[in-house]
Structures are given as structure tokens and as C-alpha cells.
């Protein structure tokens, strides 16, 4: 009996010791677990810290450009004054809104002509600097460009560096900053989809050499900058092609090289200085109606180059019929088929340049060398 009891005691003691050791071990593990952060939480925190400090080269480029360029982008709002036909009271009503950008530190702003057309009052919002009254300095409807001046500009305005649109190629990255649908300082990114496009200006003239991009451009982006991957201005966003009125991935921008030529003229003279011959042309509708190949001269203005060169306008015959004079068919060997072709050919030259004009007068083909004059 004593040996059997001893056997039970000898077996029971190790079991009790093992149970005690297991209990102590589990308690220690629980304490260690309480001291260690949760594995899933630690993983999430690690990922957050890693993402905040990580950016692809393209992301870093986009964020850097936006940070530097966005202070130069402005929100342009226009309003007009209307008189009530019954009370004759004059009220100010909103007319439209668009974008623009600071051109110079003295408060000049570039935007689209169609953003400010018909406005009686203009207001420009510059980020956190506030709202400023503005006035029109000059407009070029044929290029859909306008220059505004802030009446009381703030100090230390940010000015965008100018790029070279001739260096663009299809596939290069571009960024558009503007205020689509009134959502201020919005960035969209895309590529140059095509070059040398043509769009119609508010004056129905064709704007040639336009940049096409798939960067989202919506109503309100008009007048905002199109930037290259160096943050340089390469275009002014002006139009979209969209059946719905929203972005369809086809946007257009006026190339900065054209802006470089036009804006200084608008600042100095309030308009584009166009070299002229000194003639009045028949309308394109009349030209098409009568199947005339070229542009017919209706009248030659006295004292201007065309008159001095001997060009002839239309004349009345003895029975009251119209007898055509010179019909311009070529300028510097470039075919002329419309008044837009005529103006575009002249705009390639400066005042004082000499152009070779080819005309058809009855059955004869004539050529004239004419020195271009300044528009009056």
C-alpha cells in the first residue's frame, strides 16, 4: 500500500510541477504580448509612413510643378450691367468665368478673349491673396487672347517661366492648371496628342499651329496655362471638342510662341499690329457664290501700298454691272483662297517687309512687289 501511494505521489508531483511551469509561461507570454504592438496595426503604420515618404519620379515632378506654378494661376470672373426695362434700374449680373495667369510682377494677367468679351466689370482672384479689380489692357479676338491689369496689385506676384512650343512633340507630358466649373486651382495631367491643329477664334478667324492635348480641360479652364514637365508655359488653354460640353480628352491650347508675339503688342497698343496692303476684299460668301478662285479686291485705299503699286478694285460698268479688278491668287507663292488665307499670309511678315503679290485681272496674270504698311 505504501509503495502504491509512493508511486502515485511520484507521478503526481511532476504533473503538478509541469502545470505550474505551464501557467507561469503563459502568464509571461501574455505580458510580452501586451507590451508588443499589434502586428496588423504595425503593418498599417509602416505602410503609411512608407507612402508618405515615397513618390514615383512622375508624381514628384507633377507635385513640384503644381506647387511652384499654382500661385501664378488666377480665377477671372466677369459681370455686365443691365438696365431693367420697366424700372430703369441698373443691376450687375454675372456673365462668365475662366482662368488666367500672371504675366508680369506689375500685375498684368493673360487670359482668353472669350472669357472677358462683353464684360463691364472684371475681378481676378489670386489664391490666398484675395480678389482684385481688373481692367482690360488689350484684346486680340483673332487669337482669343486678352491682357488684363490688376488695378491695385499685391506685391511678390509669381510669374510663370516661358517655354518654347516649337520644342514640343507628340507624347510629351503636359499639365493644365485652371478653375473648371469654378473649382479653383485644379490640376490635370496628360500628353501632347497632336500639333499644328486649327481651331476657330471668336472672330471666326482660324488659329493655326494649335496644341492638342488629352489633359482634361473643362469649362472654366479657358485662359489657364498649359505647362511642360519643366514647369514652363507652353500654351494657353482655350477650347475643347466635346459633344457633351465636358472633357472628352480633346483639348486645345494656343502655343506660347504665338502668345510671345501677341501679348507685347496688346500691352503696347491694345491690339495686334497687322501689316496691311491697303485694300478691301469681297466677302468669302460672295467669293464662293460666284466661284471666284482667290480673293477679289473691292476697293483700293488711297495713300497705301496697294494704291501706289497700281492694284485695281472693282468698278461699275456703263450698264451698272460690276467689273472685277484684281483678284489676289498668291502671296509669296502661297495660294490664297479666302480672306483668312490672305490675313494669315500677311501676318507672317512684319511692317516694312516686301511681299510678292500675284493677281488675275481679266485674262491677265500680274505680279507686284509691295512693301507692307502699318494698319491705321
Keywords:
376 residues, alpha+beta, Thrombin, subunit H, six-stranded antiparallel barrel, 8 helices, 22 strands, 26% helix, 37% strand, elongated, disordered N terminus
Outline:
The protein is α+β, with helices and mostly antiparallel strands and 376 residues long. It has helices spanning 2-35, 39-52, 57-69, 113-116, 256-269, 284-289, 305-309, 339-346, and strands at 73-83, 90-104, 108-111, 121-126, 130-140, 145-150, 173-178, 186-200, 206-213, 225-228, 233-240, 251-255, 275-276, 279-281, 295-300, 315-316, 322-323, 327-331, 334-335, 354-361, 364-371, 373-374.
Give an overview in words:
The protein has 376 residues and is α+β, with helices and mostly antiparallel strands. It has four domains: 1-34; 68-150, Beta Barrel (Thrombin, subunit H), CATH 2.40.10; 165-269, Trypsin-like serine proteases (Thrombin, subunit H, Beta Barrel), CATH 2.40.10.10; 275-374, PDZ domain (Pdz3 Domain, Roll), CATH 2.30.42. Helices cover 26% and strands 37% of the residues. It is built from eight helices and 22 strands. The protein has helices spanning 2-35, 39-52, 57-69, 113-116, 256-269, 284-289, 305-309, 339-346, and strands spanning 73-83, 90-104, 108-111, 121-126, 130-140, 145-150, 173-178, 186-200, 206-213, 225-228, 233-240, 251-255, 275-276, 279-281, 295-300, 315-316, 322-323, 327-331, 334-335, 354-361, 364-371, 373-374. A six-stranded antiparallel β-barrel has the order 1-2-3-6-5-4. The chain is elongated, with a radius of gyration of 36 Å. Mean pLDDT is 82; it is low at 1-14 and 17-21.
Amino acid at each position: 500500500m505504501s509503495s502504491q501511494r509512493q508511486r502515485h505521489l511520484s507521478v503526481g508531483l511532476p504533473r503538478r510541477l509541469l502545470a505550474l511551469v505551464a501557467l507561469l509561461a503563459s502568464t509571461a507570454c501574455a505580458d510580452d504580448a501586451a507590451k508588443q504592438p499589434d502586428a496588423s496595426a504595425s503593418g498599417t503604420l509602416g505602410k503609411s509612413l512608407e507612402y508618405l515618404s515615397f513618390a514615383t519620379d512622375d508624381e514628384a515632378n507633377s507635385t513640384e510643378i503644381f506647387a511652384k506654378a499654382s500661385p501664378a494661376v488666377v480665377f477671372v470672373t466677369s459681370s455686365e450691367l443691365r438696365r431693367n426695362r420697366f424700372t430703369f434700374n441698373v443691376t450687375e449680373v454675372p456673365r462668365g468665368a475662366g482662368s488666367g495667369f500672371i504675366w508680369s510682377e506689375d500685375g498684368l494677367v493673360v487670359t482668353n478673349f472669350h472669357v472677358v468679351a462683353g464684360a463691364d466689370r472684371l475681378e481676378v482672384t489670386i489664391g490666398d491673396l484675395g480678389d482684385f479689380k481688373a481692367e482690360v489692357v488689350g484684346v486680340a479676338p483673332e487669337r482669343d487672347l486678352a491682357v488684363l491689369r490688376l488695378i491695385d496689385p499685391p506685391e511678390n506676384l509669381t510669374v510663370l517661366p516661358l517655354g518654347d512650343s516649337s520644342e514640343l512633340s507628340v507624347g510629351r507630358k503636359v499639365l493644365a492648371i485652371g478653375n473648371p466649373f469654378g473649382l479653383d486651382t485644379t490640376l490635370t495631367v496628360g500628353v501632347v496628342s497632336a500639333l499644328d491643329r486649327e481651331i476657330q477664334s471668336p472672330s471666326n478667324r482660324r488659329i493655326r499651329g494649335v496644341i492638342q492635348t488629352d489633359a482634361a480641360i473643362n469649362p472654366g479652364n479657358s485662359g489657364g496655362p498649359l505647362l511642360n514637365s519643366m514647369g514652363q508655359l507652353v500654351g494657353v488653354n482655350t477650347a475643347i471638342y466635346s459633344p457633351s460640353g465636358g472633357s472628352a480628352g480633346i483639348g486645345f491650347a494656343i502655343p506660347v510662341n504665338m502668345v510671345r508675339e501677341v501679348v507685347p503688342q496688346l500691352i503696347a497698343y491694345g491690339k495686334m499690329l497687322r501689316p496691311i496692303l491697303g485694300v478691301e476684299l469681297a466677302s468669302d460668301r460672295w467669293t464662293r457664290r460666284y466661284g471666284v478662285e482667290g480673293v477679289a479686291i473691292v476697293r483700293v485705299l488711297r495713300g497705301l501700298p496697294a494704291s501706289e503699286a497700281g492694284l485695281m478694285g472693282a468698278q461699275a460698268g456703263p450698264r451698272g454691272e460690276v467689273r472685277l479688278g484684281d483678284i489676289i491668287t498668291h502671296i509669296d507663292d502661297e495660294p490664297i483662297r479666302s480672306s483668312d488665307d490672305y490675313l494669315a499670309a500677311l501676318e507672317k511678315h512684319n511692317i516694312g517687309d516686301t511681299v510678292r503679290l500675284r493677281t488675275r485681272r481679266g485674262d491677265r496674270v500680274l505680279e507686284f512687289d509691295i512693301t507692307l504698311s502699318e494698319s491705321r
